[in-house]
Design goal:
It comes from Flavobacterium microcysteis. It is built from 8 helices and 18 strands. By secondary structure, it is α+β, with helices and mostly antiparallel strands. The strands form 2 sheets. Strands 8, 9, 10, 11, 12, 13, 14, 15, 16, 17 and 18 form an 11-stranded mixed sheet that branches. Strands 1-7-6-5-4-3-2 form a 7-stranded antiparallel sheet, with helices on one face.
Length: 386
Amino acid sequence: MKILKYILLLILLAIIGTTVYVATQPGEYESEQSRVIKAQKSVVFSYVNDYKNWEDFGSWKDDDPSMQFAYSDTTIGKGAFYTWKGSYGEGKTETIFEKENDSIVQKVTFSGNEGKAYLTFKDTVGGTKVTWHSKGKLSFMDKAYAVLKGGAEKMIGNMQERTLAKLDKVISFEINTYSIQVDGVVQKSGGYYFQQKVTCKISEVQKNVGLILPSMLRFFKDNNIALTGSPFILYNVFDVPNNKASFSVCLPMREEIFTAEGSDYTSGKLEPFQALKTTLKGDYSHGKEAWDKALAHIKKNNLAENKSGSYIEVYVTSAAQVKNPSKWVTEIYVPVGQAAATEVVPSPATGATSTNTSTTTATPPTTPKKAATPAKPAVREAQVIE
């Protein structure tokens, strides 16, 4: 019995000693890690700024496969957030500040404690230097877990390091895996569409589409309006010298909808037209290359670009359906009027690690002009806005 008492006493002393040791550990943490990501700054920033992508590169999912995620309606920019729940607890990360292509500040809540994370993006040799600085407070249980992992700063620093390494790997594949195919001249079908008009800097086109499109789709769902195809962008102005784009984010529908005066939403009708169709499979950052190929094809084949026509991007497969950018499909339609020579359709151009690709979305003309009325070329029927 005495031996048993001594053993119990030793266990009790060990528990008390461990408790005291954990309690005397720092109640705050601060850690910083950096890594050069092999991609353009605007590409890296856009990818990190969308919380739908965090599940793919965050190292915490590797540590806890049972972790479940939920997202705000808008996952991009200030006010966006995601929550998680797993074996080690639950938490929330929210963007409280962002500066385009420069920095993001997050408020992180975990087990009742609050912290902050600061992400900065800087151009450097070989890509983009991403620096991730975190600081905050620890609960007693957090401190106990950190002791087992060698200390809070080591534990958090290791998590940051692994996450940044995974980010580099994911971006290298997802962003730089793409193909561009010039499909030829088609007859583009028309129809009614619902739109919200936007004017912004060229570099902010995709960000604004990402912010506006979810709310438009939610409007359709709440009002039981049926989509008749895929969302698309209708360009009005693309002024490269002045870094200005004017366009409409559109949802195709069967009938015209009348909205209240002053509403952000209006209806429009797209008339059928002849267009050179080009398909981009991959991330939107390769959009400029796709538009350049389309315009080069028009010039090479002596097609007449109808500069008063409709310049359109159709999101056949987008982030709303598939998270992986390498699987996105975007169709580009450039209005044309005639083909004075036999059209030559090249084979697809496939990219792997293109680091000099601009993130500009398209290059329609800034001052549309009326095209001559030419003879029509042989065309193929296109799908209805999809």
